[in-house]
Design goal:
The complex is a heterodimer of chains A (about 525) and B (about 350).
Chain A (H helix, E strand, L loop, with lengths): L1 H15 L9 E6 L14 H7 L7 E3 L5 E3 L2 E8 L2 E6 L13 H10 L8 H4 L4 E6 L2 E5 L7 H4 L8 H6 L15 H4 L7 E7 L3 E6 L14 E4 L5 H9 L5 E3 L6 H4 L5 E16 L20 H8 L4 H8 L5 E2 L13 H4 L6 H10 L6 E8 L6 H12 L4 E8 L1 H8 L9 E5 L7 H9 L19 H12 L3 H17 L4 E13 L21
Parallel strand pairs in A: 1-10, 1-11, 14-15, 14-16
Antiparallel strand pairs in A: 2-3, 4-5, 5-7, 6-7, 8-9, 9-10, 11-17, 12-16, 12-17, 13-17
Helix pairs in contact in A: 10-13, 16-17, 16-18, 17-18
Chain B lengths: L25 H7 L2 H31 L6 H4 L6 H10 L6 H13 L13 H36 L4 H15 L2 H15 L12 E3 L2 E3 L4 H34 L2 H8 L4 H30 L1 H7 L5 H10 L3 H29 L1 H6 L2
Helix pairs in contact in B: 2-5, 2-14, 6-7, 6-9, 6-11, 6-14, 7-9, 8-9, 8-12, 9-11, 11-14, 12-13, 13-14
Classes of the chains: A alpha+beta (about 525), B mainly alpha (about 350).
């Protein structure tokens, strides 16, 4: 392996000198962290998954506007409520030259159910995946599943023959995954191959000549990816010309970067909304001076908070105007969003104070707020701003901002939701509201594993009944109407305190065409170099 | 009798003076026990002690890991069920009491198994092995820079105390000790990487693989990449050495044997470099040895600023995601380095100072 690394380094050096083929276009780019594994089933994390999409492909995919498009499947149909049939693309080759068939789909589904797989919860949406012929598979779901193709957007197809040859028929988990071949090697069907892999340091990709789609927009032939953790160092690498593209660019660096005419900043609101949630399930808050009762169970307190926090000001002062202030818990780019429930709330301090008085807290109360300081865009600053705004109606916030590992340990369901007031940013990989309702809104039930991301324990039976129906409704219009109904109730309950859809912020050399997809995935297929 | 150049070496004041124990005449002892044997037993004793040091370090480390955060959340996606998370936690033994976890770690470590990185799903030993060369190379080059610049600057400032250059060296050294490393690093990136564009802003450049060792010293981009991080890391040590040499020189210049040397009519050059400097170098060597350990250990910040792919960066990244096996192995390794470096420094004393030899350690 070291020999190949050395050879590849020499090659990369040649390319950097411009001695490559005539139309060689090398994209050098950086992100704050590395792809955590090359195994497409090892970790379900946006960046890892999104970059694996360059070399592994799924049956379906998203285009630049997050519309569902065919990838390894050419079409799919819901033949029965519990059956989906996928017609596979013919003439597709894996990087090692073997042909792609239905066997690989069945194999990949089975592999994603193995203990080391982090895609098990997605794989379990199907009870069976059956090969009908070489280019047709039938997926059976335990209950009607209208959004299965969407949910399987990250279910990548691996080669059965290759996996068996290299003894990697199980996903590279943490316990037994050491030395799993697929952790450091890939064999997908995507437009790029990984030709050098040095975890944390450098990963080099080369265009796959046998790629099935000859009409890709991109003209990139080689990619050198080097993660740079430190924000200022990453920005410096872009300015100095060592990088063509970096993500993310800290919002506060925009002003300085404006001085460099050869650099463009790309930004747009992401699929990830930032909201505050509050403990509405305990009879007494864990971290507050209010004893014997829970102020957040009182809708008047929740409404008062929503009427106090000025999301427009937060966007202007903290987010450089790049965020999209919101009044709901799904981003506007998510399937199911509607302006009728998504408008931000107007600030009304008088009314807020009145509501606090009526609720029995004319002088407010003290509560601890949990906030990460290295997870979301300007997370800690937003928490500080919200804290000082809440002080206007007497809610004294004791802010606990800490690193994400500690923050999640405290707030998540796994750790017992040890929080009273918290920041949350949930973005569904399916880009569909159904997933948000299931995870964040549905009544929390630890035994049944429901409402896993509903840290505050908001629970409304009417909404739950709707969610149950949404899950199995195959008619899209009817489904969207019910999503709208459910999210309108959530809004009227003041169940959450929504702030904004956080912005993506990328920097690139002038002349490089970058299409920013709202889910934050760098879609290499669209990048055009000058 | 100590050699002439050792007399008056001020560092000896900081070492324990030989203790005269009644009935144990030092001279007699050395006659009976061969020197090689004393040396060997000393080394054996130290290595034995080092095991306890490493056990203690890893014990404290494991006691602290519980407060670093939840590792599970970094290993799974947001849609992973509670059950799967609990299962993973159980499999990794994270539910066990910390003493059990610690003893399991020690047991495996004694067999050379440091576990699997939670983040990279690779054996920790392989991970450390791939990162160690970068850190060691950076540390040694920094130490060389610190010595090569610190000593001449120290001599100069001691001999020409009121010179303009001396004053400016002293001013610069003040900056060196007071500026935090990350700030010096970022300032250097700004000046040499962004404004002048002479040097790469991050990384290690192209490396050459020699067996398991990877070196950036044999390629142009590797050497260029090394300059800024090495200077950043060296700055503090350099000022330390410069001030140390200066203080020692000033003191030695006052001593009798220098005055006698003058009286004997020796040239200034011979006095300054043959007699005075030699005497100042002993403490410098020992301090440098000890500082090398801290250079290796504290390269964390420099490596983070320059995205230098060494162990320090690995450690920081591991803390961020609570990668316990990597953190444990790193701390153990650093403890080992300190023990070894201390051992070497002590052996140097042993070689240099006959009084310690006599004492039988």
């Amino acid at each position: 392996m070291k020999a190949t690394f050395a050879a590849a380094s020499v090659l990369a050096g040649l390319l950097a000198l411009g001695a490559g083929p005539v139309q060689a276009k090398t994209l050098r780019w950086s992100y704050q962290g590395d792809i955590q594994s090359l195994d497409p089933m090892a970790l379900n994390e946006t960046f890892t998954m999104g970059t694996q999409d360059w070399f592994y492909e799924s049956l379906v995919s998203f285009d630049k506007d997050l519309k569902l498009i065919p990838r390894l499947a050419v079409k799919w149909e819901n033949t029965e409520p519990t059956k989906w049939v996928f017609h596979l693309r013919q003439g597709v080759k894996f990087h090692d030259g073997t042909a792609f068939t239905a066997d690989d789909v069945v194999f990949s589904w089975k592999r994603s159910l193995t203990p080391g797989s982090d895609m098990r919860s997605f794989a379990m949406y199907a009870s069976e995946v059956r090969k009908i012929d070489d280019f047709t598979v039938e997926v059976t779901t335990p209950q009607p599943d209208p959004v299965l193709p969407r949910e399987w957007i990250d279910m990548r197809i691996m080669s059965k023959a290759w996996s068996e040859k290299h003894h990697t028929t199980e996903a590279a988990g943490i316990k037994a995954g050491a030395n799993n071949y697929a952790n450091l090697h890939e064999n997908g069907t995507g437009p790029f191959m990984v030709i050098e892999r040095q975890p944390d340091i450098k990963t080099v990709f080369r265009r796959f000549d046998g790629y099935w789609d000859k009409n890709l927009a991109t003209n990139v032939t080689d990619i050198v990816f080097q993660p740079i953790a430190q924000e200022s160092t990453r920005t410096a690498a872009l300015v100095s010309g060592e990088m063509d593209l970096i993500l993310p660019v800290p919002l506060q660096d925009w002003k300085q970067l404006a001085a460099y005419p050869d650099i463009s900043i790309y930004h747009r609101p992401e699929t990830r909304p930032i909201v505050f949630g509050m403990d509405q399930s305990r009879d007494e808050l864990l971290f507050s001076d209010v004893k014997g009762k829970n102020p957040f169970k009182d809708i008047r307190v929740r409404e008062a908070m929503a009427r106090t926090v000025d999301v427009v000001a937060i966007n202007k002062k903290i987010m450089q105007g790049a965020a999209r202030p919101t009044g709901t818990i799904i981003a506007s780019s998510i399937n199911g969003y509607d302006d009728s429930f998504g408008q931000p709330r107007k600030v009304d301090l008088e009314k807020a104070k009145q509501l606090m008085k009526e609720a029995g807290y004319p002088n407010g109360f003290t509560v601890q707020m949990d906030c990460p300081n290295d997870r979301y865009v300007n997370d800690e600053k937003i928490c500080q701003a919200v804290s000082s705004m809440l002080a206007r109606i007497g809610i004294k916030v004791d802010l606990l901002a800490q690193t994400k590992s500690k923050f999640f340990a405290k707030t998540q369901t796994q750790g017992g939701n040890q929080t009273s007031l918290y920041m949350q940013g949930f973005s569904p990989s399916s880009v569909d509201a159904g997933r948000v309702l299931d995870s964040v809104v549905q009544c929390r039930n630890r035994e049944k594993g429901l409402g896993l991301q509903n840290w505050g324990g908001y629970c409304n039976e009417e909404v739950d009944a709707l969610i149950a129906k949404i899950r199995v409704e195959t008619g899209e219009a009817r489904r969207n109407a019910m999503i709208k109904q459910a999210l309108t109730i959530v809004r009227n309950d003041f169940a959450f305190l929504p702030i904004h859809d956080q912005p993506l912020s990328w920097g690139a050399r002038k002349g490089i065409e970058v299409r920013q997809r709202a889910d934050g995935v760098l879609n290499i297929r669209d990048i055009v170099m000058p | 009798m100590a050699p002439a150049w050792l007399r008056g070496a001020s560092f000896l004041r900081n070492r324990p003076m030989p203790v005269w124990r009644p009935g144990r005449t030092p001279g007699v002892r050395t006659q009976h026990i061969p020197r090689a044997f004393i040396m060997a037993s000393f080394i054996a004793k130290r290595i034995f002690q080092s095991i306890f040091v490493m056990l203690a370090v890893s014990f404290v480390a494991f006691a602290l890991f519980r407060y670093v955060g939840d590792p599970i959340n970094n290993m799974v996606g947001q849609d992973t069920t509670l059950e799967q998370r609990a299962q993973l936690k159980e499999q990794l033994g994270l539910n066990d009491p910390f003493l059990t976890q610690y003893l399991r770690f020690v047991n495996h470590a004694m067999h050379g198994d440091f576990g699997t990185s939670y983040r990279q799903r690779r054996p920790v030993s392989e991970l450390i092995e791939s990162r160690l060369p970068a850190t060691l190379e950076l540390s040694f080059v920094s130490a060389l820079i610190a010595l090569a610049m610190g000593i001449p600057m120290g001599i100069y400032t001691a001999l020409r105390r009121r010179g303009v250059l001396s004053q400016s060296f002293m001013a610069v050294s003040l900056v060196g000790v007071s500026l935090p490393t990350f700030l010096t690093g970022i300032l250097m990136i700004l000046v040499f990487g962004v404004l002048l564009r002479w040097l790469p802003t991050f990384g290690r450049g192209e490396v050459v693989h020699l067996g398991w060792w990877s070196s950036g010293l044999f390629t142009g981009s590797g050497r260029l990449s090394l300059i800024m991080p090495a200077f950043t890391l060296a700055l503090f040590q350099m000022t330390l050495i410069m001030r140390l040499v200066r203080a020692e020189m000033l003191e030695v210049m006052q001593t009798d044997f220098i005055r006698f040397a003058r009286a004997r009519g020796l040239t200034e050059r011979a006095i300054n470099f043959r007699h005075a400097l030699k005497n100042t170098l002993v403490p410098v060597i020992t301090i440098t040895g000890l500082q090398l350990g801290s250079i290796i250990a504290f390269s964390i910040i420099t490596e983070t600023v320059f995205q230098w792919p060494g162990m320090g960066l690995l450690f920081i990244q591991s803390i961020g995601v609570v990668d316990i096996p990597v953190m444990a192995a790193y701390l153990l390794l650093i403890a080992f380095f300190f023990v070894i470096i201390n051992l070497v420094v002590d052996l140097l004393y042993f070689a240099v100072d006959p009084r310690l030899r006599v004492q039988g350690l």
